[in-house]
From TrEMBL:
This is DedA family protein. It is a multi-pass membrane protein. It is found in: Cell membrane. The lineage of its organism: Bacteria, Bacillati, Cyanobacteriota, Cyanophyceae, Oscillatoriophycideae. Keywords: Cell membrane, Membrane, Transmembrane, Transmembrane helix. The keyword Oxidoreductase does not apply. Residues 30-159 form the VTT domain. InterPro entries: DedA_domain, VTT_dom. Belongs to the DedA family. It holds the Pfam family VTT_dom. The keyword Cell membrane applies.
Length: 200
């Protein structure tokens, strides 16, 4: 995955960053924790500008947040849950997750959208309760913009600072990549085990 992310950024520059961040908000296993620091590292090589990377990543994040929002808003809770019953297993998404996210949204409102963009794992699906509760799209876009901008700025700066010492970059990204791959492996194991359990 690390090589794929690196090659995409190298080949497409800002467009590649935007594309990766778009996919990261739709498909959970693609981590922004790798994308944006790597993009920040390219700034130190003079290939991209710091703010260009941040803007590209934030645009990708915003575009990636919209599909879940609009699908949830259009389908409504009942249809969405029926869809999750059929296909949610591929995204590790359950109806219980939807219920919990809606409870949080009802309790904390827009703050869930804002701070949810800063939390790995939650970031991908935070658009769902906003859509189900028919949060005004301009408000949703505004809070998503603030949260995404803060997150991408932090990760890009981390990559930029580490990029001043290539050895540190390798030491930092290597373990992160290993953790991500380990997490994916554990996810697959848990999913297989749960699927084999008899229905109660």
């Amino acid at each position: 995955m690390l090589d794929w992310i690196t090659n995409t950024i190298t080949a497409f520059n800002y467009w590649g960053i935007a594309l990766l961040m778009f996919l990261e908000n739709i498909i959970p296993p693609i981590p922004s924790e790798l994308i944006m620091p790597l993009a920040g590292f390219t700034v130190t090589q003079g290939k991209l500008t710091f703010w260009g990377v941040v803007v590209a990543g934030t645009i990708g994040s915003l575009l990636g947040a919209l599909p879940w929002y609009y699908v949830s808003r259009r389908l409504g809770e009942n249809q969405l849950k029926r869809w999750i019953d059929k296909y949610g297993k591929w995204l590790n998404l359950t109806n219980e997750d939807i219920d919990k996210s809606q409870d949080s949204f009802r309790k904390y409102g827009a703050a869930v959208v804002l701070f949810g963009r800063l939390i790995p794992g939650i970031r991908t699906f935070i658009s769902v309760p906003a859509g189900l509760q028919k949060m005004p799209w301009l408000e949703f876009l505004g809070f998503s913009l603030i949260g995404s901008l803060c997150w991408n700025l932090l990760l890009t700066y981390a990559g930029f600072m580490l990029g001043q010492n290539f050895g540190l970059v390798e030491k930092f990204l290597g373990p992160v990549a290993a953790v991500v791959l380990l997490g994916l492996a554990l996810f697959l194991i848990v999913w297989v085990v749960q699927r084999k359990k008899p229905a109660q």
